Task: structure prediction
Amino acid sequence: MKEKNITARFIELCKINSPSRGEKSIASYLKKWARDNGLHCAEDRAGKKLSSNSNNLYISGRKHSFKNPQLVLCAHMDTISDTAKIRIRSSAGKICAGGDTVLGADDKAGIAVIMQTVQTLKKRNTLKDTNLMCFFSVCEESGLRGAAHCDMSMFNKKSFVYVLDSELPVGTVITKAPYLDKFSILVKGKSSHAGIDPEKGKSSIKAAAYLINKLPQGKIDRETTFNIGIINGGNKINVVPELTVIRGEIRSHKYAKIRDISDRLSRVCKNTAKLYNEKISFFREPVFKGFDICSGHPIVKTFKKATGNAGIRPGESFSNGGSDANVFNDKRIYSVNIGTGFRYPHSEKEYIRPKDLKNGAKIIIELCALFSKKTYFV
Result:
């Protein structure tokens, strides 16, 4: 396997604009690739449910066999933001964008590795020996929505799902990921003319500022974070703002901590409403559940063996980020996220090294070899 081949594939993928709910172009690219290589391709109806212009894709080299554990390789097709104006640069052993957009290595690096793996297995005439399915999801960046609406009939109870979607080093398996709840706070004051009779109004922004100052921010502890990401208040500079909306999230590896922080947030809302004589409403909604898989589980041991077989030192870690692995574990299908090697995702500084793309593919090829030889750990 040549590094330049997977690098070229990755760059080609990055040039395809595919924001959440706009994955049609990359889905068409993958479906054409499947047809050209004689692969089976199916799709579900997730797009209609999620207002996306594409569905989740299921690509495999043969019809499924439900007698043996099914190896599933997963990556998401959407990027965190629009990349229509992307300019890709290669320098100092890194591939990055020109500074105006994200690169989209999250998660086109995962897609490139999966495609290179399938191409290599097909060339070696070993694809037919592996009960392999490639799952490409939509709307991952908008809350793991695509995987949540996947067609469960495409999987079996013995499926092992490896999600290629982490900024951690190649060869790292993520066995623990957080729960996430999102919240909204509606602060309702009273509008009035800001110049003529401001004293008749009640500023929702002033109450919201007091409320925010009473809340925790950032990293609460090693496994818990709190973030306010959106604030909308007022609509004109000459009007005392009547409504302010605050939106954020709480993550933790222990759901009890999310409940504790939510209780604190609720108390702060009540106290602020009383202090400013305004109406404040608090809403909380679960987005996804966390998971914690032990080091001795077959899905972990098999990946570590494949990594060692590829000549790379295996690692194990936890993550404070969510991935489609959260969804599959909640659906009672064992899944782990694995390091893909991209850095600074969701930012214009995002980059990846070509050698990490190649090493990632080497590991997944070895993983497929273990499944084809039925030497996975069960």
